[in-house]
Write a structure and sequence with these properties.
The protein is α+β, with helices and mostly antiparallel strands. The chain has helices at 3-34, 48-55, 57-87, 94-102, 109-119, 128-140, 291-316, 320-328, 333-361, 365-370, 382-392, 396-426, and strands at 157-159, 165-167, 177-181, 206-212, 237-242, 245-251, 257-260, 268-271. It folds into 2 domains: 33-132 and 285-426, MetI-like (MetI-like fold); 157-276, no CATH class. The chain crosses the membrane at residues 7-28, 67-87, 99-120, 299-319, 340-361, 398-418.
Length: 427
């Protein structure tokens, strides 16, 4: 090349070099210098800001969470991408499936954070995660319809051990028993509930009624007796207890009436605590113990499609004759996948995993948006702590030290990735 061509090349590269220097080199250099100064920027702090990385509780929590992110998020996202790429290779609608899985990549981190903040809402009527979880739970362990029911004034019932209610006096056959309760709003009564009916006397049996002893309106209704607008506790379980043992039990009908055999004569009636068990409200996804795994789940939802597309591209270049040769030799599909497909895709899997590792070291948006204020300290990561130290707590020296530390963490991973890519080009 002549000197003229070098000058032309330098001229064309100058805008890129200026931008690179202004947007990359200068900020890195400034952050490195600023990390050695105190809060005001006037006094030299030495390594004090770097010591804070290992003594500050918030930064230590962020370090621990970053380790979880680096270990689990890239691994799970790459594994799911591999599974999706392999399973959709032979199906006719594989392209449509890949498009759907890849679509979250078109959504910004901000939008993803807002979506999953709603998905993880504690209220099952709002949060999809808890709606599904509660639905599965209630399939196997149905909650009571009367979680807030309790005896009212002048009630024959009193509180017993474990959240149950027990009659104050033993009951007698042939004498109807009234078991009034209050505390359940009319709109939350079971659909099977009917108008409460007074129990009729039956010889040799203990009969009674359990109902919602409350009528709207001041001075309306008769206390201790079923009124026309009051509903029976349909499905309420009643037990007859003698000397601490259950001798008979039954379930109230839709109108609240029930009947027990002669064995209940002289026993006390008990409404067991299972009648009043609080409704299951799901998991606290954004609580201190689950907030980090929950946010990692949202990241995997977003980036599994990225991993799948890259792995699918690598899978398309795998020689099909090697796969067919393995099948001819008697290998089943699992053996072909484990011993042939995965080893051939190892370079691609390494590149995807390392790329995601670099990405998760810088994760900020999802944690900042999804984690509520009450558990943001528990979900903290280095990038978020950098923001908090630099802006919320006005400690730019420590924030700069965190930025330099993050750079030092990313450099080895980037070096490994670049080295592997160069090796692939040489091949």
């Amino acid at each position: 090349m002549t000197g003229t061509r070098r000058a032309v090349a330098a001229l064309f590269l100058l805008p890129a070099l200026v931008l690179l220097g202004a947007l990359v080199v200068y900020p890195i250099g400034y952050s490195l210098v600023r990390s050695f100064y105190d809060q005001s920027g006037d006094g030299f702090a030495g390594l004090d800001n770097y010591k804070a990385l290992f003594t500050d509780d918030g930064i230590r929590t962020a370090l621990k969470n970053n380790v979880l992110w680096v270990v689990f998020a890239p691994t799970v996202a790459t594994a799911l991408g591999l599974i999706f790429a392999v399973l959709t290779e032979r199906i006719r609608w594989g392209t449509a499936f890949k498009l759907v899985v890849f679509m979250p990549m078109a959504i910004s981190m901000l939008a993803t954070g807002i979506i999953f903040r709603l998905v993880y809402d504690q209220d099952p009527d709002k949060g999809v995660a808890n709606a599904v979880w509660v639905g599965v739970h209630d399939t196997f362990a149905q909650s009571s319809a009367f979680p807030k029911a309790h005896p009212g004034r002048q009630s024959p019932l009193e509180a017993a051990r474990g959240g149950a209610f027990l009659t104050r006096e033993p009951v007698r056959a042939g004498s109807p028993v009234s078991l009034p309760l209050v505390g359940v709003p009319p709109d939350q009564m079971p659909d099977s509930a009917k108008k409460a009916a007074p129990a009729t006397s039956e010889p040799g049996k203990v009969t009674g009624t359990t109902w919602q002893d409350f009528t709207r309106g001041k001075g309306v209704g008769t206390l201790g007796a079923p009124d026309p607008s009051e509903l029976g506790y349909a499905g309420m379980r009643i037990e007859a207890v003698k000397d601490g043992k259950v001798v008979a039990s039954t379930t109230a009908a839709g109108d609240g009436t029930f009947s027990l055999p002669e064995a209940a004569d002289g026993a006390q009636l008990r409404l067991p605590a299972s009648n009043f068990k609080e409704a299951y409200n799901g998991l606290d996804w954004l609580g201190p113990s689950l907030v980090t795994p929950a946010i990692i789940g949202s990241y995997i939802w977003m980036w599994a499609g990225f991993a799948m597309v890259l792995i699918a591209a690598g899978l398309a270049s795998v020689p099909r004759e090697l796969l067919e040769a393995a099948r001819v030799d008697g290998a089943n599909e699992w053996q072909v996948f484990r011993r042939v497909t995965v080893p051939l895709l190892a370079p691609v899997l390494a590149v995807v995993t390392v790329t995601l590792m670099i990405n998760v070291l810088k994760v900020f948006d999802l944690v900042f948006i999804i984690a509520p204020g009450s558990s943001q300290d528990d979900a903290n990561v280095l990038a978020l702590e950098l923001y908090r130290k630099g802006f919320s707590e006005d400690q730019p020296g420590i924030a700069s030290a965190i930025a330099v530390f993050l750079l030092l963490l990313v450099i080895p991973v980037m070096w490994f990735n670049v080295r592997r890519l160069r090796r692939e080009v040489r091949r």
